[in-house]
Amino acid sequence: MPSQAQSAALPGAPKSPARRRSPMAAPQSFLWTRRVILTFLAAFALLPVYVMISSSLKPLQDVSGKFHWIPSGLTVQPYFDIWETVPLARYFVNSLVVAGSATVLSVIIAVFSAYAVSRYKFRGKRVFTVTVLSTQMFPGILFLLPLFLIFVNIGNSTGIALYGSRGGLILTYLTFSLPFSIWMLIGYFDSIPKDLDEAALVDGCGPLGALFRVVVPAAVPGIVAVAVYAFMTAWGEVLFASVMTNDTTRTLAVGLQGYATQNDVYWNQVMAASLVVSVPIVAGFLLLQRYLVAGLTAGAVK
Amino acid sequence: MTATVTTDSSTEKSDRVTSRGTGGARRRLPRIPDRIRQGGLPYLLLLPAVLLELLVHVIPMIIGIVMSFRELTQFYINNWGGAPWSGFDNYKIAVDVNAPIGEALLHSFFVTCVFTFFAVGLAWLFGVAAAIMLQENFRGRGFLRAIFLVPYALPVYAAVITWAFMFQRDNGLVNHVLHDQLGLTDQPSFWLIGDNSIYALIVVSVWKGWPFAFLIVMAGLQNIPRELYEASAIDGAGIWQQIRKITLPALRPVNQVLVLVLFLWTFNDFNTPYVLFGKAAPESADLISIHIYQSSFVTWNFGTGSAMSVLLLLFLLVVTAAYLLITSRGRKGADA
Question: Where in or outside the cell is it found (chain A) (predicted)?
Fold first, then answer.
């Protein structure tokens, strides 16, 4: 019956029973508006996806000529060529290392500081939260120039090559993932009853025990949401990647531009490569999206 | 905390059990005063975050401000501390609208404002419409929800490169549909150079931005107590009335944060124009972040670029402060 259909549509969603809105039947005017709006939005959302998939299966002369909705001939050759035209595998590894490290680093650091802000009173708490909140609104371009100069100067004076290295890029990615993670997790930790970890403290857990045995397990949706966000933004970041990398540390964001030569753009390969770099992240995201909504509900929207 | 009366007996029961259990434990032992118990612990927990915030935000920002007062050209990149002081010269150059640099900056600022207005407005509208239309359960809801999130999940460069392909003059989908199939234009138009570029940029930005609005509003809808809808249905309110009288007012605080965040992201967006147009954006779509990037890294004039960055920062601070002031006043008025 209705409740069953519902839990089938929303497995694992918070408070899944009785999410249905009104027992009344919706009028035709609403149903038609809904159909029109949802059809338009679905088409808008998927149009580039269709182009990406269909063009990636077209031979080069087909993508170079006039656009056709239906490919004139199907070929999977672009999927083999993409690895030869540019060192895509290397870019892939670079992106994976950079985005992965930035995510892990910012989540761990954010868990500690969000716990401190959410659970303790201390001097300087306001200064800290205001700083974190305000840095979130600053444009990346503002930090790009100084970080670039700092990295160049550190390289010149100490020989530590931050500019052009993966480590340097990971550091710069913390400019956006860290403030967002801290801010979201403070909100999420605040939504977990303090009684829970106070009870753990009373029972003899240290503060870190309370954090890791009570707060972190209860905050899994929030932590996953933050990690997904951090990874996705790092995976898609272009500005820092285009300035702070060199031939060996180049990420996918910059590497994908390599399919355009002076005379020709291998559009079928561009589309095939775009699809290859998108599939893992879209799949991961769609698997974790319920966490994201749950995390946002508690952390950001309250 | 929410103090709504819930009809769901199972959640009520589990709530009571938890609160009774911990409440009892707390009463048995006297609470240790916070100050004694915590000691330096909060600072220790904050230490890594503070160090990294200093490294990636605070120090760069200070250096950025210092740089904006120096004559920092390519000759001083390896030793920017040695660049001569120039006082407010960089700022004078940036705001002198009668000279080419200042004029271009003002134009870029104007373009960014127009772009942001339309991109944020449409993204917000689509996101809210989608979330409200998916609020009620029906067949295919979960599927549509997944589809709507795809643009958000796709990496920016992969998605925007695809749009760039679609906007190609000769082999793109957009001209194929507008010119060949619908016959709306006399000849295939340029979308990535010239005056049409701003439209292309807005379309791509809206496509990329609305799923985020959808996600946030969807999360916000979960906080609206269902009893409100039930009570209003009993009173005879139809679904349109419920949307107007319950859903939209309840979403107001969410919308306020959402619009601010969308504004900041869109205004500062670099990724979309950079992948769509490359290093030099067409004049009609010359967004401020690309403009500053170009002024700094292409013409190697870091001093002026920094001054522009600081001006941008001041502008964003003023707008955000004004927005927060207005919306918090509005909320207070609604509460009273």
Answer: Cell membrane
